[in-house]
Amino acid sequence: MDAAGIILADNAAWLSKELTQHRTLSAVPFGAKYRLIDFSLSNMINADISSVGIIMTDQYDSVMHHVQSGAEWDLDRKNGGLRYLPPLSSADSVLAEGSRLQILRNNEFYIRQLKEKYLILCGTGYVGSLDFAALLQAHIDKQADITSMFGNNVVNATPLHKRIGLVTNDDGRIISIDPAQSDALLSELTMNTCVVERELLLDMLDSLSRNPRGLTSLEQLQETLNTKRVYAHFTDEMIIYLEDLTSYLSGSLALLDHDVRKNLFHAESGPVITKTKDSPATRYSKDAKVSNSMIADGAVIEGEVRNSIIFRGARIKKNAVVENSVIMQDSTVGEGAHLNYAVLDKEVIIDDGRLLSGYLTHPFLCGKGERI
Fold first, then answer.
1. Would you say 299 and 317 are in contact if contact means Cβ atoms under 8 Å apart?
2. Cα angle, residue 226 at apex, residues 224 and 231 outer, rounded to 5°
3. Could you give the CA distance from residue 169 to residue 148 in angstroms, rounded to a whole number?
């Protein structure tokens, strides 16, 4: 494929501060052994994209430790391959909070040295096996300047403020974005993913970043729609959209449905790849009880687990009950403890006999390394 990729692995204010306090958004654990960035990287590789840049505004270590050289995704190459990109490229660079345009502008040097004709830009605030090859082909077929991806098959509930009221003509060209139509049938969920010709993006960065008339972001967007051929590409693939702790828990528990797992992890476009770890097999004691749960390798289950996601190295001790919950790596639930609708970050310790309960719309959260 004649395209390179840039993953905007930035943090996000809408996701729980506890989950992103020690890591960037793209490094948030998901699905027993994955990180959010695994899905973006896998979508790139499954579309035969071999040059990928990752831009992070803060909390670099978590992503770099997980992805490393990109070998798991076949990105450790002499030509192309994986590149970590700084949010600030020089002493006079400016990082405006929330300004992805400026972040891309700061990495103009990387974009210029690429050989590919097209660029696919994507965020990491969602989970899905998306067909980037189909996105690029739709872009080429319609001779578009920009093609933006939208999802209409979202597994978990998403508030309307995260949807965009699209106004399009008959062939899918976006005429305007009207937030007043956010509850209309035309509303689709933005995937923060688009394809654009590399040279065109460089021209746009140069002109829009200077913004001589002081346009707002919405005005800049509308001006782009007026002057460029911007199209919408709708995908029917299953998507889990992550915007807060509630959607994180509901999206995680959605994986317990066989059809959802099949669509997310075994899509026709290709598998989801993650970092390989040499963990022992999960150990179940003779008194362990497990039903409708995802349990990663290396876990120890001595109590009861129902409708839950258990990560590598987690331990559920004797007579403990975990239900409707997410227990991340190396966390321990003590003897006789009972958890319901809880999210435990990494290395959390729940002492014996504790009772922790939330609800699907208000999960109980324990931050990384906490002890209760």
1. no
2. 75
3. 15
Rounded to 5°, angle at Cα 140 from 136 and 142:
120
Tell me the pTM: 0.89
Question: How distant, in Å, are the alpha carbons of 83, 118, 182, 272, 326 from that of 30?
Answer: 24, 30, 29, 12, 9
The single residue listed with the structure tokens 């995704």 is 73
Looking at residue 186, what DSSP letter applies?
A: T
277 assigned to some structural domain: no
3-state secondary structure of 185: coil
C-alpha 24/C-alpha 36 separation (Å) is 10
Q: Which of 157, 231, 235, 223 is nearest to 191 (CA)?
A: 235
Number of folded domains in the chain? Answer: 2
Q: Kindly state whether residues 327 and 216 are assigned to the same domain.
A: no
Contacts of 217 (CB under 8 A, 6+ apart): none
> What CATH number corresponds to the domain at position 357?
2.160.10.10
pLDDT tens-place string over residues 180-195: 554 443 345 667 889 9
Could you list the residue range(s) of the whole structural domain that residue 29 is in? 3-271
Domain presence at residue 371? no
